[in-house]
Each structure stands twice: as structure tokens, then as C-alpha cells.
Amino acid sequence: MAKTATRGRRKAPARGKSKARSSGGGGGLLPWAVIGIAAIGGIVAHDHWKSIQPMLARQSTPITRDTAEPRPVVKKDVPPKQVALAAPTPKVAVPQPLPPAAIPTPMIQPIKAVPSPASAAVSEARTVAFGYCGQGAHINCVGDGGVFWYKGEKIMIADMASPAVDRARCDGERRVAFAAKSRLLALLNAGPFTMNAAGKADPSGAPRVVSRDGRSFGAQLINEGLARKPGATGSAWCA
User: Fold this and answer.
1) What is the mean pLDDT of residues 121-145?
2) How far apart are CA 163 and CA 51, in angstroms?
3) 8 A C-beta contact, residue 190 and residue 220
4) What are the pLDDT digits (tens) for 162-171?
5) At CA 132, angle to CA 158 and CA 135, rounded to 5?
6) With a threshold of 0.70, does the pTM exceed it?
7) Residue 91: is its pLDDT beyond 70?
8) Residue 212: is it exposed, middle or buried by C-beta count within 10 angstroms (0-12/13-18/19+)?
9) Using CA atoms, how far apart are residues 154 and 63, in angstroms rounded to an integer?
């Protein structure tokens, strides 16, 4: 009896295992059945593709049209933007410049021209090379003991009188005339000199007082016995 009990206990688990196997075997065939049905459907669709394609196209066209055509966007009423108008700038009055005040001008009284004496005219001659006057043009040359030309103007020494060579009345007067002429040439070539007007010019020449360093040429010739004061009376140059 004990052995039979053990056998009965051992067989009970065996039945449970068979049920599990049977249930496990049935669950494993389901996926294979689904795969087989899908394969058969794919083969049938492939064979009848030409007849199935128009049906699919009819169903897909309205969808594509709906998606392709954009729907008009309904714009909501947007209130217009309010633009603030700029306030006009007030015009600023520019002050006008005032005219300048009149400047009083003093009355200018006419000045009377006072004639200056002829002796006030002074001209200074620079160093010029003088020579004896000949037959040509007289520019800077000595004609007699009391006459010479300076820059083409005939000058007469006003504070002396000396004999003229061409009008000498005797040999003694002629010698004095030559000596005075030579001495005047030496004085003129010694350096700059000053000429003061001593009267109006006339055809005989312009009267001038010629001096250097305040010493008159006429006074020197008088002191040397080669001239005399103008208008002086005395013995003639001829004895």
C-alpha cells in the first residue's frame, strides 16, 4: 500500500507537466499562424496590385487635397495704430541787430599851406664820379670854378663868384679860373655833399649852397683866394 501511494504521488506532478506542455505548445503556434496569414495576404496583394492601386488612389486624393490647400487665415479685427502727431514747434522771434550808433566826427579845419623858404630844400648827393665838361652831354661834370652839372642839372654855387675860363680878360684871371675849376672838381669827388636851394632856377642854372659836414664849398674857395663873395667890389683879377 505504501508503494502505491508513492506512485500515485509521483504521477500527479507528471500530469501537471503535460498540461503545461500542451498549453505552452498551443501558445507557440499563434505567432506562426499570424505570419503565415500576413505572407498569404502579401502574395495576393502583389498578384492583384493593378486592380488594388486605383482604389487606394481614390481614397488618398481627397486627403492630399485637404492637406495641400491651405485654409485661409481669418484675420481678427486689429484696431488701427494711433500715431501721435508731433506738436508744432513755436517760432522763436530772432532779435534783429540794432544799427550802430552814429559816431560824431570832429570838424576838420582846413590847414593853410605855408610856403617854405627856398633855402629849406635840401638834397643830398651820393658819391658820383665827376669830370670836366666837354662837347658831349653834360651829366656829372664841372664847367667852371662855380658851375657844375649833377645828374644832367646845371648847378650854380650861390655863395661865391669865380672867373670863367672862356671869359678871362687876362692871363692872371685865366690862371685863377683854371685853379678854381680844378679845386671844385676835387671837392665834388671827395665824397657825398649836401645842396640847399638858394633861389629859383633860371636858364643860367639852379642856385645852390653846396657843403660837406656843414662847411660850404664857396667859403673854402674864397678862403683859398680862388673866388670872392657875390657882388663884392674890389680889384679885378687882372693887375
Assistant:
1) 83
2) 166
3) no
4) 888 888 888 8
5) 105
6) no
7) no
8) middle
9) 136
